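Page 47, continued from p. 46.
Same chain as before, 346 aa.
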Amino acid sequence: MAVHEIVLVGEAYERGFTHGRKFARLIHEAVREYCKFDASLNERVGAFRQNMTAYLADIFPELLEELRGIGDGAGIEFNDILSLNFFPGPTNLPIYCTNIVLADTSDGPIHGKTSDIGSDYKYYLLQRTSPAEGGEEFLSVGWVGTIWSEVGINSAGLAMGQSSAPVMPGQDGTGIPALVMPRPVLQHCKSTEEAVEFMVRFQMAGKGINVALLDQTGHGVVVEKAFDRQAVREADEGAVFCSNHFVEDGMQGTIPLKIEGIEENSIGRYELLTQVLGNRERVALKGWDYMAELLRIHATEERPGICQHVPPYLTSWYAYIQLPKKREMWICDGPPCQGDFVNYTL
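Result:
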């Protein structure tokens, strides 16, 4: 098991074609596995796909051009590539993660994250992207065949990581899909403040997200976002974190995530970090090593852990540590308790 890697340069379609051609076999496999919906979902997925596509065409047409390139490079119909990129919206793909922001440590601002997932670990792809149409160069992790950004850092020193969150009712698919939303943030924003102001301009479709943002100045927040609502939690005493539920009052009234026990697991992880990060002296004293310690905390009989080993959907197959000042992303292939972190630098 290892995260796949690719370097993407040039215009959007060119980048997509390179991506699709290199990973054609895996993309075909992912489409077969995740884009064959039962009759009860076909109409809903089709409607969501149509409305998401129309929304993106108005605001980020270059993203659709990149998807068209992926499809052509892989030899896959455009609608199937759209379904692969958009299906987490109407179907609630189980990607359940923890994000931690430490705004001021001995190693500077640090962001840490786990990917608590299932067998889809085999599709994870690290993209180093230099967009010819403008914006920042960035490192970003998503799936092969997609423009997803689950975690990433850009050349301006802005780091980002997202966690799945509950669904806001009353949607028809008009908006940006959850895993796509952070991608234009990495390309077009230089700071946490810019990213928050950028995100509030756009509506989301499907499930919600918690997005941890941290820039090189140490400004760290968690953005809670779903459908037409957005709330922001600032770092408190230098730390802010999220799991898979919303905390802010304005983000309540959602439809719970589908996996049995995920809400209790999410609340347990959040309460654990609330307790552990109360000791600011220890947080400030340690930097990278302390973040690695946090990501390796295991469950006890009383509570869940940050490093999870709960099949089929709650295993921490990957972990990440990002240093905005150094433009570094460190990736651990495998649960962070078992593997070493490998450095990637912009």
